[in-house]
Amino acid sequence: MFLINRLPPLFLVTSLTLASLAGCAMSEEMRRIQLSKRSQQLQDASRSTNLTGEEVFIRSCNTCHVAGKTLENIPKDFPDDRALKAYIRRGKGIMPAQPKEVINDEELDRLVLYLRNLNAPQ
Ligand code: HEC
Fold first, then answer.
1. What angle do CA 55, 73, 63 make, to 5 degrees?
2. Three-state SS for 70?
3. Average pLDDT, whole number, for the chain?
4. 77 lines ligand 1 (CB under 6 A)
5. End-to-end distance of the chain based on CA atoms, in angstroms?
6. pLDDT tens per residue, range 12-54
7. Which atom of ligand 1 is the closest one to the Cα of 93?
8. Of 64, 110, 112, which is closest to residue 88 (Cα–Cα)?
9. Rg for the chain, CA atoms, rounded
10. Which atom of ligand 1 is the closest one to the Cα of 70?
11. In this structure, what DSSP letter does residue 73 have?
């Protein structure tokens, strides 16, 4: 305290500014660390989920195929599940590929079942 009182005011102002700038940089760093932790958590969560076919559909397909839109021809175009699953894994054009990290094998089984029911005659 004794020392600070004796320092010229300008120096005090400068060092305070520097200290607060460093504080900002630090909290920016903390914010980034937290953001990256959060996105890692979200990624892990998406891998470990065990969603139903409907949940997967709503999460990954419904944006484009709202309520099954343009999927009416699945029975004709994909009579067997293997080809349908391969198509979903691969994607096509703007339709994104769906790797196992996003839809695991069990979820894909359930998704296909959901798609088959979607197209079952009412
Ligand atoms: C970004 C939009 C988009 C998303 C998300 C999307 N699709 Fe598609 N889907 C398309 C488009 C566009 C086509 C037509 C592709 C083509 O033939 O060029 C298509 C075609 C298909 C077809 C072929 C239909 C047929 O009879 O030929 C199936 C099956 C399909 N999508 C299933 C799915 C499933 C299941 C999901 C979710 C995992 C999904 N799509 C997510 C846009 C999307």
1. 35
2. coil
3. 83
4. yes
5. 83
6. 555 555 555 566 677 888 899 988 888 877 776 666 578 999 9
7. 18
8. 112
9. 27
10. 24
11. T
Q: Is the CB of 59 under 6 A from ligand 1?
A: no
Q: Is the CB of 88 under 6 A from ligand 1?
A: yes
- Is the distance from the beta carbon of residue 65 to the nearest atom of ligand 1 less than 6 Å? yes
Ligand 1 pocket, residue 107 CB under 6 Å: no
Q: Does 98 have pLDDT greater than 60?
A: yes
Tell me if the pTM is above 0.85: no
Residue type, 47: R
Q: How much distance in Å is there from the Cα of 95 to the middle of ligand 1?
A: 5
CA distance 105 to 122: 28
What is the average per-residue pLDDT within 97-102?
94
Work out the number of other CB atoms within 10 angstroms of the CB of residue 41: 10
Cα angle, residue 70 at apex, residues 65 and 74 outer, rounded to 5°: 110
Dist. CA 117–CA 111, nearest whole Å: 10
| CA dist., res. 67 & res. 9, Å (int) | 69
Q: How far is the CA of 70 from the centre of ligand 1 (A)?
A: 8
